[in-house]
Design a protein that fits this description.
By secondary structure, this protein is mostly helical. The protein contains 22 helices and no strands. 71% of the residues lie in helices and 0% in strands.
Length: 554
């Protein structure tokens, strides 16, 4: 309660008006999108009709949820510039890989979800296991988003946590049920611009508070230390750094296992690409998203470090504020009325973007991968459309329950990365083997995925009980991800060699070939323009991300 009272924001009529107008626009977009929802494909995948610039902005906005803003700002306050690893090595290469390599196989197979690809490649058992794991993960991650918004509502109105979670969940439920995925995606495009417009003033005023860029650097050197402004300093074996990880765990754990596991198999992201109007647009979706993604640290991580300088006791044991409170604290003390309303609206937008992404992917996977094939097959399309809307409500209610799990973490990004190591990393290992190795079998896919999920959970329990000593939660998550990937592969390969694979005739379009990876699909006018070539966009993003590392590498 002390923390809640201390975070109370002084909103006036202008701030509240901005917030009300935003909510009205969001519901208006949902009502407009409702007219295009005629069947289940429209509801779950927007009829595969959206242009690349829309799906690209929605792709990055779906990730730019309240968990990203509050969580990565918390990471900034706790770990400093080491947090940029989550953007540069921890996002851009995997997003490029998705667009250049994996998207043709997802899109051309006409699957409605990531688990459905495993049904075509393997068997019903692998399909059901992956669908169930993804449904659980979606609900848990939705709970993180709900808790993140509850922090904002507590600061705004002083509401207790249960009331904040309930009100927030009902609003998101309304606009997804009304307009389906189209409503979520078009709102995510709006939310992207609102979020950026809200966070830029906070960053500028935060820098002014600590004396500009020069004062910021001097304050960091005098306080947390110069290593707080480096990305690779102190990451040698046996060296200490705030992140508690070395260059190998950063590169393989975060840069490969966590990153590729999240960006290539997390259906909340892939679903945006599958909604594109053709294969060219689907491939460009994550590539377009990669460019704004690499600059997000300037308006998310930087304010987190500034919060640590302004409030040195943040995140300390027994202190009044958690690392999660970094952004609300800066909003309270730095923003004038009017700008404060825009910032609160930006946080609301970020919450709804993240929550909508997870709930819309949950209703798709449950309906198309569990309900349709195993519980009620062969029903009219209208039946699955109704089920999708009902399951949306179920997902929001379940997310309300799991929000209280997130409330037990002082840094919600630590919790979120833990979930990724449990669910996304083993799924990625199974996908890589399935896509690039024809000898991979259905039984190998099932047992590898099962073992790869159990292994990181077991390791995490050992870490939390003190059996395995690791300096930080994020360091433990990186090691956990490496274990998940390694165990999945170690179990899958011998099982595959001992069991019979599918014949080549059943693997067409499901296993990597150069021709399939380079397939352009049906192109629309303008798709062949040089600036829309996926290879140029992808390699351009890689080079630019490498250049972004330079200021933090010396």
């Amino acid at each position: 309660m002390l923390s809640a009272d201390g975070l109370r924001l002084s909103m006036n009529w202008m701030d509240n008006l901005i917030l009300i107008v935003y909510f009205a626009v969001v519901l208006g977009i949902a009502l407009a999108a409702k007219r295009s929802v005629r069947n289940s494909l429209d509801f779950f995948l927007s009829g595969r009709s959206l242009p690349a610039w829309v799906t690209g902005l929605a792709f990055v906005s779906a990730n730019l949820g309240a968990t990203e803003i509050l969580g990565m700002a918390a990471n900034g306050a706790q770990y400093g510039a080491y947090t940029i690893h989550w953007y540069l090595i921890g996002a851009i290469p995997a997003m490029v890989f998705l667009g250049l390599v994996m998207m043709p196989f997802y899109y051309n197979s006409k699957v409605r979800s990531v688990p459905e690809f495993l049904l075509l490649r393997f068997s019903r058992s692998s399909h059901l296991l992956s669908a169930a794991l993804f449904a659980v993960a979606s609900v848990l991650i939705a709970g993180v988003n709900l808790y993140a918004l509850a922090i904002v509502l507590r600061a705004l109105l002083g509401w207790p946590l249960p009331v904040s979670i309930g009100v927030a969940g009902v609003f998101v439920l309304a606009y997804i049920i009304i307009g389906g995925l189209s409503s979520a995606i078009y709102n995510e495009v709006l939310q992207f611009f609102v979020i950026v417009a809200a966070l830029v003033p906070l960053t500028v005023l935060g820098l002014a508070r600590v004396g500009g860029i020069g004062g910021f650097i001097d304050s960091v050197f005098a306080g947390p230390g110069p290593e707080f402004l480096t990305a690779w300093g102190g990451t040698g074996f046996g060296q200490d750094n705030p992140l508690g990880a070395n260059w190998l765990t950063i590169t393989l754990g975060l840069g490969f296992a966590v990153s590729f596991g999240y960006w290539t198999t997390n259906f909340a992201e892939v679903q945006r690409s599958l909604s594109a109007r053709n294969l060219s647009a689907a491939r460009r979706t994550p590539l377009i998203a990669a460019f704004p993604k690499m600059f997000i640290p300037l308006i998310v991580v930087l304010p987190g470090i500034i919060a640590l300088l302004v409030y040195p006791q943040i995140g300390q044991a027994g202190g009044a504020y958690d690392y999660n409170d970094a952004i609300p604290l800066l909003m309270r003390d730095l923003l004038p009325n009017g700008v404060l309303g825009l910032a609160v609206t930006g946080l609301m937008a970020s919450f709804m973007a993240g929550m909508a992404a997870n709930v819309s992917s949950f209703n798709t996977v449950f309906t198309t991968d569990i309900w349709r094939p195993y519980l009620k097959p062969g029903m009219p399309d209208a039946h699955y459309l109704r089920v999708g809307r009902v399951v949306t409500a179920v997902g929001v209610l379940a997310g309300m329950g799991t929000a209280f799990i997130a409330a037990s973490f002082s840094n919600i990004m630590n919790y979120l990365q833990t979930l990724f190591s449990f669910f996304n990393v083993p799924l990625f290992a199974t996908f890589i083997l399935a896509l690039f190795w024809k000898r991979m079998t259905a039984k190998a896919g099932f047992y590898g995925l099962l073992a790869g999920t159990i292994a990181p959970i077991t390791f995490y329990v050992a870490y939390k009980t003190g059996v395995v000593p690791i300096a930080t939660d994020q360091g433990a998550n990186m090691i956990s991800s490496m274990i998940a990937f390694t165990v999945d592969v170690a179990v899958s390969v011998p099982v595959a060699l001992a069991t019979a694979p599918k014949p080549d005739s059943e693997l067409r379009g499901l296993v990597y070939t150069r021709a399939a990876a380079n397939d352009r699909g049906e192109e629309l006018p303008g798709d062949s323009a040089w600036y829309r070539r996926p290879a140029l966009l992808g390699w351009g993003a890689i080079v630019l991300a490498a250049a972004c590392y330079l200021p933090f590498s010396f």
